[in-house]
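We emphasize that the prediction below concerns an isolated chain of 522 residues; any contacts that depend on oligomerization or on bound cofactors are therefore not represented. The input was used exactly as deposited, without trimming of termini.
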Amino acid sequence: MSGFNQATVGGLSYIDLFIIFSYVVGVVLIGVYYGKYIKSASDFFLAGRALPFWAIGMSIVVSDIGGTDFLYVGGASYTYGISAANFDWMGSMPAMIIAAFIFMPYYWRAGVYTVPEFLGRRYNAAVQVIHASIWGSITLVGLAIIFFGTAKFLNIILGWNYWLGVSVTVVAVGLYTFSGGLTAVVMTDVIQMIIMFVGGLSLSALSLWEVGGWHALKDKVLAMGPQYADHFTILRPMSADNPYPWAGIVFGLGIVLAMAYFSGNQAIVQRVFGARSEWDAKGGMLFGGLLKFFVPLMVALPGLCAVVLVPGMEKGDNAVPAMIRLLLPAGIRGLTFSALVASFLSSADTSLSAASTIWTTDLYGRLHQLIKGRYPGEKHNLYVGRTFTVIFVIGAALASKQLEEQKSIYNFMQSLFSMIQGPIFAILLLGIMWKRINQWGGLAGLVLGLTCSYVLFHVDGLFPAEDPFLFVAWWSFVFSLAVTVVVSLLTPADPEEKTRGMVFGQVMRDGKIQRVLAQRVE
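Result of the prediction step, given as a token string:
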């Protein structure tokens, strides 16, 4: 494969390098420019609650796609086929519609900074701190994964050594996130999404053209041997050597992981917290769902075409970079590489902003309240948030090299999410949908559900899949639902004042609650 990269594919032209360099510098300058509008913690973490729906939707999509999707979903498509596209179709679009109408209005009305803060109000401080500790840590791991993927990508396309690639990413992302907070993150995301869609769709169109169209692609792949028999099966059969069996995709991904991701992942819903109105909060998520339809065309299709055009690759994660260098002419190639760089930068700034927000408001803020008897002020939180931003960007960069030992970065990342998202989504869903669920039920469902996830992951042969993260997500969700309901029914109900404005049916029926919510928003 090394011979292919060097002799057949060739390197980037000077115009490609100029486009990539200009793009990165431009994004950093734009992000830093928005720093002049940051005067308080609300400005830094929530963009002053002034984000329009179109910016929210575009930012959600580009943050969710990420460089990891271009590399790892493209690689999964190369290895396993079109079933990998489910992570964007079945794993995104339905969940984003439901999230827009069920969860986003409550987040926005509550006026909170984070999902843990919302759960703290609905349940208690213990739920908030446990949730924040878990998500804050997982987000930092995610940031390290992004730095790792960026460095590998820059090594493939530019020949940079690992630490040079990480250092450039750290400086770029750290600088504009530190300066402009969520405003800089969202506005640079808008630019990055446009670049990403232009570059990604161009690559897909050229890839499909090169193989002779969809039907020719299918015929050529299937003719390559029986190992490719399921490459065009959207829902693959149950098999021990298949990480994407249909039952796991439908139940684990479609019902649990996708819903949890778009309803309870701070890195995604933080944009909604910064919406300028409830309509923009809903509209942003719906607009993002519409844009999501096109994502598999950019990340999965090129990987599938690479089976024909670049056969025999030892590692599928190299498929998309190889296709870019093989098919695209100078200039367009630089633009498309810029799109991939954009996806990495967007993922990194999203994780960095989410981590600093959670650690500042939910962990540092709670500790400050315990010691001082009050929450820190806006200026104090702004200083702490920026300090955490610096600490996290450097710490994640230094830790990223340890990921070299992982067999599949994408499955490693999904496994981490599946261990926590089932229990978290269970208490989030029940908390919003049923008034009778109380703080003790929520705490028990979270703690015992996380314990269940750990046990399920460490029982060999329990599920018919090579990587059982989809099944773990589903069964930990079901277990947490049951625990939360049983414990809530066996313990006294929370007072009505505690659940006021937090429960779906209650808000829909009670005009007095609607007036309370209006006062909260003001």
